[in-house]
Structures are given as C-alpha cells and as structure tokens.
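User: Can you predict the 3D structure for this chain?
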Amino acid sequence: MSSLYLLLLLLPLVAAQTFHWGPCNTPKVQPGFNLQQYLGRWYEIEKLPASFERGKCIEANYSLRKDGTIRVLNSQFDQGKRRTGEGTAVVRDLTEAAKLGVSFSYFTPYSPYWVLSTDYTSFTIVYSCNDFFRLFHVDFAWILSRSRFPPRETVQHAKDLMTSEGIDLTRMKATDQTGCKDE
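Assistant: Here is the predicted structure, written as structure tokens:
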C-alpha cells in the first residue's frame, strides 16, 4: 500500500516529463567516446519535455575541472532573463566512458547522461532515464549541435538513430534558438 502512495506522490513530478510504463531502455552508447573532443559548447536543438528547461536559446558548456570532474554550465533565456545552472558530470566507468553521470546539486545522486552518438563537430545525441521500481520510467533525450541551426538531415539522422534504439520521440519538441545573443 505504501508503494501506491509513493507512486501517487511521484506522478505530479513526472507529468512534465516523458513517462512510460516498465523499466528504462538500454540503448547502445558511442563506442570509443573521447571526452576531450566532446568538451565545449553545445546548443539544444530538440528534446523530450523536461520541466527544468522551459526557455529558449538553451545551451550547455562542458569543461574539465582540475579534479577530473566535468563542469556542466547550462543556460537558457526564460521570462526575460538569462538563467544558468551549474552541475558536475563524472565518467562512471572508463570501459564505458560515454555513460556519464550528472548532478546539479550536492544533495542529489548522479543521473544518467549517456552519449548515444556524436561526431564531436556537428551533433550529439544524449539520453537519460530514471527507473522507478521497474514499474515505470521517466526518460529524457536531447539532440545537441555545435551550431544553433544544424542541417535538417543531421536532426533527422539523430531522430532515426534514437528510434532504432527504441526511444519514443512522439513528444520531442524543437528548442527555440532564434533571437539569441550570439546568433
């Protein structure tokens, strides 16, 4: 009975996300992932809904800290203001370097940040999924680019790859990258 109450308490939290019954998918990740090539600025092109991303001109900047962790600096323009969030990413297992963990608070555990595919210079596909008792999961997916306006074929290639890995893209939405300061 307490599991039912917990489930009912969690449902409002996942309403603004992409919710599915059953456990998380386990898509393949980028083989031979090279973190050094991945670092730098990436612009969000499309995403599955995420309650923490409601603005426009969304971008992420990754840099290496002296302690070997990765500084994640996300920014977006929301309600007339530039808003930023700083987090930390870590490579959890060097044998699968594309499966990172990311946290935006000292009080929260690392969430999956899996790089499914990247060419390092034009696009990357990122996937994250949190499983709740193997009853349901909430997943996130992002198509990021080094350019605010990548070619349509690049975006379609990313979507095709995610679909082939069993990721449901029916709720995927484009991020508004128009009118951004450095456009």
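The chain has three helices and ten strands. Strands lie at 18-21, 40-47, 56-64, 70-78, 81-91, 99-103, 111-118, 123-132, 136-145, 173-174.
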